[in-house]
Write a structure and sequence with these properties.
By secondary structure, the chain is α+β, with helices and mostly antiparallel strands. The protein folds into two domains: 4-134, P-loop containing nucleotide triphosphate hydrolases (Rossmann fold, 3-Layer(aba) Sandwich); 142-172. Helices cover 23% and strands 22% of the residues. It has four helices and six strands. The chain has helices spanning 38-49, 122-129, 146-152, 155-166, and strands at residues 4-10, 18-22, 78-86, 98-106, 111-115, 118-120. A hairpin with a 4-residue loop joins strand 4 and strand 5 (111-115).
């Protein structure tokens, strides 16, 4: 099983400064009142893993992900999210015990990826996530409102998603 060890967030959506979220192995829950940023944490994970849909990140353009400022805090110049994945089992094709994936975006929407400090492309990030069955545009993370959409699907559409998730659709 894949394990996210830590998530570092800077200037992403409602997170003005640098925030660190350490996660234990197993099930982790993020709880809080409405408006506290729970959905933004899930979106930060999707963002750093390379999710392509701005709609799923609840932004019209990538530059909208940068913290815009508040009553007492100035706007950020960029947003950066780093995810640290445990790789002791070498599930990812990287010869290190941890895989650090970072994605940074500026107000103009220019995006930059790094893997263990080296500049990389989105396609490279997707290629190292693939052996661990992580697809940034797949169903690894269920976003806000997606359960309702799943329930409203036809039985045929639901079956197709379940076949994709289980990995049997490639045998058709």
């Amino acid at each position: 099983m894949n394990h996210i060890k830590k998530l570092e967030i800077f200037g992403f959506k409602s997170f003005c400064g640098r925030k660190e979220i350490s996660l234990l192995e197993g099930l982790n829950c993020i709880m809080g009142p409405n408006g506290s940023g729970k959905s933004n944490v899930a979106e930060a994970i999707c963002f750093v893993l390379g999710k392509a849909s701005r709609k799923d990140l609840r932004a019209e353009r990538l530059g909208d992900l940068v913290y815009t400022g508040g009553k007492r805090l100035p706007p950020s110049k960029f947003a950066k999210v780093t995810i640290i994945l445990d790789n002791k089992n070498r599930r990812f094709p990287v010869d290190e015990d941890e895989v650090r994936i970072s994605r940074k975006v500026d107000k103009e929407g220019r995006s930059l990826y790094r893997v263990n400090g080296k500049r990389q492309t989105r396609e490279y990030v997707k290629s190292i996530l693939s052996p661990a069955n992580i697809d940034p545009d797949g169903y690894n993370i269920v976003m806000q409102g997606e359960i309702g959409k799943f329930i409203d699907l036809s039985t045929e559409e639901r079956r197709k998603i379940i076949e994709d998730l289980s990995g049997i659709s490639i045998y058709e």
